[in-house]
Amino acid sequence: MTPPAHTIRRSLYSRYVWVVVSILLIIGIIQVQTLRSTLIIAGETTLVFNLRDALYHEKITPENLHIIAPQLLHMLSSRAVNVAVYDSNLRLVGKQMAAYDPMPLQPMTPQIVSLVWGSEDTPYGRFKNLRIMLSHGAIQVYAPLGTRAHPAGYLQIAYRDQILYPFIWRGMALYFTASVLLLIFAAISLLPVVESALAPLHRLLATASRIRSGAVEERLPVTGTRETEQLAVMINEGLDQLQEAVRQEKESTQRMKRFVSSASHELRTPLTSLKGFSEVLLRRLDTYRENTSVAREIALNAAPRRLRPMLEEAFVRDEQLVELRHAVASMQNETARLEELVRDLLQLARLDEHFKLNRSVIDLAAFISEHQAQYEILSKGQKMFFHLTPCSVSCDPSLLQQVIYNLIMNALHYTNVQTGEIHVTVSPRGKDGAILEVSDNGPGIDPAHLERIFDRFFRASEARERNPGGAGLGLSICAAIIAAHEGKIYAQSTLGVGTTMTVEL
Fold it and tell me: Coiled coil where (predicted)?
């Protein structure tokens, strides 16, 4: 049998690996968010400290803002930073776009001034005039030039957060490389961990395999984890109970076989004597009936008329002799049935002793064809059809003949005399095998009984009970003979349609 693809080892290993992968993935997501936040804060902090000179430039006034603005733009500009200077009336004085990643700056409006400086809170301590906004993928820093109460103008610095992506991607690549290495290390190190966890189960499986191979006295080791120990204890207790039940069943079967064999041997002699006595008694009854009839006629003709009634009563009447003969004949028939039963029981006992077969290679189709006339004589009106394909088989011819005879008799017995049809089919099975099928259109067998019809003394259906024949040993003998040939016999049946007995050799 092909082992299933899903195993405990694979399940545990895959779950462990998925746990590691999930942990690494969660850590990676947290690390990316943390790195991005850290880089943004670092950039903001850098901008804040770069702005300190501008924020506390004492010489900045509304009059000289146009002169100082170019200096501020030059001092604060960099490749990725965009700078703009506005006067106190929010008019653009000058701006410097980043060479690396220029972006359009949002014009300064009274609404922005109100929004940016609407709160006194700031995370940068003494730079209370500074306000930072993160919006639409850009970081913008706003600060008044001069004092907040009387600003000479306003300063706007902005850059895209995209400039942080190379650092984030570099950190992610480094983390991915480390994660792959860690995952490989975890996958390799988990192999012995999983094997160690499954070691008790492997020992149980190895012992169970030896038990299945025939070491029925062996028991599962009670070692390992608590679960495997409990499992081993329960299985061992079940095996002990099963072994004891099998032992008792074998002893009971052996006692029954010995009894049947002994009883059959003991019954042979009295049955033979009983059969002989009944035959002798039948012959004597027939002779007595003839002699009595002649003597009665002579006595009645010679006797006076007044003595004839007395002579009539003295002689046994013919009707009584007929009834007596019927009783003896019935006893003889029942004796014959008992002889057949004893013969079948003795044969089963012989088959149980694993006797040696007298094998020879025969053509099964030709073998059946030779006995076809005998089989047709057994029919009481049923039609018989033979479909024979030549094929060779190694068997004991005499025993195989008994199997064929029993199957055909069984089919004839349970089919209607007027409408019954029996089909005997022989076909090849491989190079040196054969399949024999005997089909009928009888009442059929209940599917629940198909597995038991080869048991001894088992009768399958009510239809068969109403038409009893033998003792229910014919199919048992067939099964024992086929088993001795290392073949198979089985039945297929449909109620109201018929039954097919199949023999594979």
Answer: 321-351
Phi/psi of residue 139, each to 5°?
Answer: -105, 120
CA distance 314 to 65: 168
Per-block mean pLDDT, blocks of 10 residues, the chain (505 long): 62 82 87 78 69 62 81 72 85 81 77 64 43 61 73 80 74 85 83 76 76 72 74 80 79 70 66 72 72 63 62 58 74 73 69 75 89 86 89 87 88 87 90 89 84 72 47 77 87 88 90
Contacts of 35 (CB under 8 A, 6+ apart): 167, 168, 171
In terms of DSSP bridges, do strands 131-135 and 392-395 run parallel, antiparallel, or are they unpaired? unpaired
Distance, CA of 438 to CA of 386 (rounded, Å): 9
Residue-range domain boundaries for the chain: 9-168, 228-352, 360-504
- Element (DSSP H or E) covering residue 419: none
CA 477 to the chain's CA centroid: 35
The conformation of residue 346, written as its DSSP 8-state character, comes to: H
CATH class for the domain made up of 9-168: alpha beta
Residues 71 and 75: their CA atoms lie apart, in Å, by 6
The two structure tokens encoding residue 74: 């030059």
Tokens of 83: 């700078």
Sequence-distant (≥ 6) Cβ neighbours of residue 23 within 8 angstroms: none
What are the residues whose beta carbons fall under 8 Å from the beta carbon of 110, sequence distance 6 or more? 90
- Which CB contacts under 8 angstroms, 24+ apart, belong to 264-267? 264/342, 264/345, 264/346, 264/349, 265/346, 267/338, 267/342
